[in-house]
Amino acid sequence: MATIEEQIKELEEQISKTKYNKATEGHIGKLKAKIARLNEEAEQRRASKSGNTKGFYVKKAGNATVALVGFPSVGKSTLLNQLTGAKSEVGAYHFTTLDVVPGVMVYNHAKIQILDMPGLIKDASRGKGRGREVIAAARSADVILLVVDIFNPNMNVLFKELYNAAIRLNQTKPDVVITPSDHGGILVKPTVKLTKITTETIKDMTAAYGHINATVVVREDIDVEQMLDVLAGNRVYIKAIMAINKVDLAKPGQLEEVLEMHKQFRCIPVSAATGYGIEELKQGLYDTIDMIRIFLKPQGQEADLDIPLIVKRGNTVGDVCELIHRDFKNNFRYAMIWGDSAKFPGQTVGLDHKVMDKDILCIIVKRT
Fold it and tell me: Which residues pair with 364 in a beta bridge?
């Protein structure tokens, strides 16, 4: 019987020999779904065999985490030192950083954890150069900061490795829900017009992935790759911005070329060596994480307008309670709120009320 790797190779060869067009779309989609299923099985076997393998473990700290991702020797360690003051070894040779080095950047009252990680190389997603451990650490970040050497700006290899490792940069999770059932086969229910994939292809891919009876509700005009992401279910969707490093050494016109090359990202020119652009980069990270400030008002007292509580946009009163102390949520009675999220000053709200920037919040708890 063929091994999983041999089965995957055979399926990939079938895809490479199949010319892509509307008539073959469903067949290729089905083959890709089978490959995704086999890859998942291979990963599960690999994880069970290497359960004791040492990975990178970094305790999360602060309001958000940023992972520095790039090729070896692009200046990530120097950049970490500029952003945080953390001591990460710096050297002009590959693989200076052999472990994940954390630091904390304080900006606009927010504490942002920055992780300097070993550089990624070709086949990192398959484990080369401790790639799996590096990628696992990156997957848990709130933002990925892509660090690019202006003299080596082609990032296609790195983008491919991140994509193969199920990281989706600046994408949102496709609005597709698969609900298993006990009979009826596979039923596809699109709520929008599908222009990039047919319902038959969705049905074939869902079956190829191993579903027998299920309802697939599609609320977005997805393509084959997005349907694969839905089926796999292990994708992470992470915001990303780019720091173009060593601009102090660039020739005229060189920066403009790199900016055009990576125009799909928010790019910030920096020099980790001189400190140029570091403040703009800090602001860029803060904006990308999308944090807001909440001012707390103890009952019967004035609000503390000097030191805000930092939370992520979209957080609720319940999220704020958990940040303060678990008991605040357990003993919660109600809250009063002033600011843009309130219908009127001092509105009484519950745990599911979404807070907004510069809201003033008074939480009332049960007496114990």
Answer: 334
